[in-house]
Write a structure and sequence with these properties.
The chain contains 5 helices and 9 strands. It has helices at residues 18-25, 40-57, 83-86, 110-125, 140-148; strands at 2-4, 8-11, 62-66, 72-80, 95-101, 130-136, 152-153, 159-160, 172-179. The chain is an alpha+beta fold and 181 residues long. The chain is 30% helix and 26% strand. A hairpin with a 3-residue loop joins strand 1 (2-4) and strand 2. Bound molecules: coenzyme A. Coenzyme A binds at residues 30, 33, 98-101, 106-112, 135, 139-142, 144-145, 148.
Length: 181
């Protein structure tokens, strides 16, 4: 699995990604809209899970590498939404798009650039009819990316994330959708 954009290579995970991914996901600022930053062990488990999913179902959030340097700068891609989460979202959407980037590169439009390539792949190569994105309602940077790539907020799709306990401040989520043109 490999996609090229102007500045990014989007590809499957490799063993050499383990340390740089742990550094990105271990950053409390990158993780400020998640329950916690990840330890290297937790980031490694996430990498293992992503590799397994990519092997089993073809896609999962993948690696984003800067073409100019070969450096891993984030994770981005499409993923099949787990049943527990689907059940909490009106309409039970199937596939989401998501992203997390190294904060030293924020503000350069890299996430939308990578996301546009993933949307095109999802609609044209995978034949998906709809892709959604969701995030904590206070995560405005991520919602900006959703808007930039042509997604539309669906207020009827707001939901409480089932993987967080009732009353957790990060539990309220907003939903954005985009359908194949
Ligand atoms: C969301 C994220 C991937 C955006 O990536 P990006 O490549 O910076 O995207 P953009 O350059 O298009 O910037 C998007 C918005 O981020 C915000 N932003 C930009 N630079 C920023 C910075 N240094 N600090 C905080 N926010 C910033 C701006 O609101 C920007 O919108 P604008 O272009 O209208 O000003 C990135 O902020 C990130 O990794 N955040 C932490 C992980 C996360 O929350 N992931 C989403 C979970 S659903």
């Amino acid at each position: 699995m490999r996609l090229e954009t102007e500045r990014l290579t989007l590809r499957s995970w490799e063993e050499r990604d383990r340390a740089p991914l742990a550094s990105i996901l271990g950053d409390p600022e990158v993780r400020r809209f998640y329950p916690s930053a990840l330890t290297p062990e937790q980031a490694g488990a996430q990498l293992d899970f992503a590799m397994e999913r990519q092997a089993a179902v073809g896609v999962h959030f993948g690696a984003a590498e800067l073409r100019s340097t070969g450096r891993l700068v984030g994770l981005i891609g499409l993923a099949w939404i787990p049943d527990e989460t689907r059940d909490a979202i009106p309409g039970r959407p199937a596939v989401e798009i998501g992203w997390q980037f190294d904060k030293s590169l924020w503000g350069q439009g890299l996430a939308p650039e990578g996301a546009r390539a993933w949307l095109e792949h999802g609609f044209d190569a995978l034949g998906l009819s709809e892709i959604v994105a969701f995030t904590f309602r206070g995560n405005l940077p991520s919602q900006r990316v959703m808007t930039k790539i042509g997604m539309t907020r669906d207020p009827a799709g707001d939901f409480e994330h089932p993987r967080l306990p009732p009353g957790h401040p990060l539990r309220p989520h907003v939903l954005y959708r985009i359908s194949r043109a």
